[in-house]
Specification:
It is built from 18 helices and 10 strands. The chain is of the alpha/beta class. Strands 3-2-1-4-5-10-7 form a 7-stranded mixed β-sheet, with helices on both faces. Strands 6-9-8 form a 3-stranded antiparallel β-sheet. The protein starts with a helix and ends with a strand.
Length: about 375
Amino acid sequence: MKLMIAELRKNKGISQHELATVMGVAHQTVSKWETNVTFPDITLLPQLAHYFEVSVDELLGLKPLPSRTYNPCEAGTKDYWSKRLKYLRSTRDFLWNKDYLQFLIKKVWKINNPIHILDCGCGYGHLGTMLMPLMPEGSSYTGIDHSENLINEGRGLFNTNVFDVKFVCDDVLTYESGIKYDFVISQTVLRHIDDSHLFLNKMISFTKDGGLVVCAEVNRELENVGLHIQGMDYDFLCQHPGFREMWNTELKRQGRDYTVALKIPKMMKDLGLRDIDIRMSDKVNFISPEDADYAEEVAAFIEAHEFCEYKTSEQQALVVERFMNHGMDRKDAEYYCNKQNKITEFIGRNQEMLTLTKFYGLLISFGSK
């Protein structure tokens, strides 16, 4: 008989010390279980089986462990974003202050002459609508994205009589461009895809010698603790148990890296860029009933954070299953669902007098080719 505790623990992504704390034993005891020096007390077997969501026979190695097929996160796929236009519209204005973007263009990047811009993973081109009015006259903008729905939306945003703009519906990773660009940028793309290193390398390949490569990415840790809602306990709002386990599982199983915002400068260095630097957007969102566009701001916030409806038990079960498939344990997944519902209920009761502060932690890394 071979105890399966070590394999189950590693699959769950917890340490011996964490398991010992849950079971109320010394961590040396867990080590002895895993090396078959000693066996758990018979009264602990049902607790261990319940914790690992297996039968006692599976725990004892008498039956094979159930194979759980990992279902990759779809956040890097065309089909996923083709259905997320409403979400994108509700979140883009939360990321930048226009005067800070202008400061970067004029004072940091020192763009004084017309340039050709390529926006990789442009979505519906919102970043282009911010960049083009700030760029020297004669500049051009090209947006590339693999979602035809988003590209078509972007084409309707620009007045082509004023700006030189075009969109390309293609996958950045397979696209071959006959043009080199002065300024190649991506915004909140690398955090969602499975191979950020490959994507960044492709961006560099589109860039002229001497051109600038820019990646703007949200720091997930800062985003998770960057919310305060008046009337709710901040400690409750900023707790996200199980998320790191889930993110690490996604990194291990499919390459999706929640820490990529902080790693980009080193990636740029490794790929041969020079004069690398990193800044942070100064945008912090404050929403108050006194705001002239308060209703629109609240509606965008609710849509962006999925606080628009109370989740039924059936909906929660789907979320719990998906989170557990990605490395989170049941207790933390259920905590997340209950938390979302509590916030949704609070906002629903106070929607006409809601005061909140939200900070995303947008990091802007850049380097010259």
